Amino acid sequence: MNAGRLYYVMGPSGADKDSVLGWVRDNGPSHAVVCAHRYITRPAHGGGELHVALSAEEFERRERRGLFALTWQAHGLRCGLGKEIEHWLRQGVNVLVNGSREAFPLARARFNDMVPVLITASRESIARRLMARGGETPEQIEERLARHDNYVAPGDALTIVNEGCLPEAGAALLSAVSGWK
Hints:
globular; four-stranded mixed β-sheet; alpha/beta; EC 2.7.4.23; 7 helices; nucleotide-binding; ATP-binding; GK/Ca_channel_bsu; 9 strands; Rossmann fold; five-stranded parallel β-sheet
């Protein structure tokens, strides 16, 4: 049996990465790809992504027990990918994980044959989405836009531009990782 491929999805705030991944989870054929849940130290209904909420203490206990394949910190939260993804990969399943641009070097070191995927959008679309979200000051939005402007994607990254309707970006991601049309 051939091993599956790990697709490490990342992108700037405002590119609507969580919605694109959610579309793939809801609309992709189950044999094509599995979307792994992240374990995060935030409430279950915090943020736009479907995740497994853990207290900081529970996260730390799981990390000490070796239950994560990868962990990192982002925006004051702890994030992790469970060891189950390793089992899925050994079973020949292609796995999409919701990563972080800042944690990408850690992920590349841990999974050297993974495929980086960048979900992005124009500066204008990102600014509009961040303003509509309403959770950040204009200064914080400008900081996020500056990070977007200065980010250099890995040379081997698959890039999905999320400018139009969500099904277009979702179908583009699904097609890129599974050959689905």
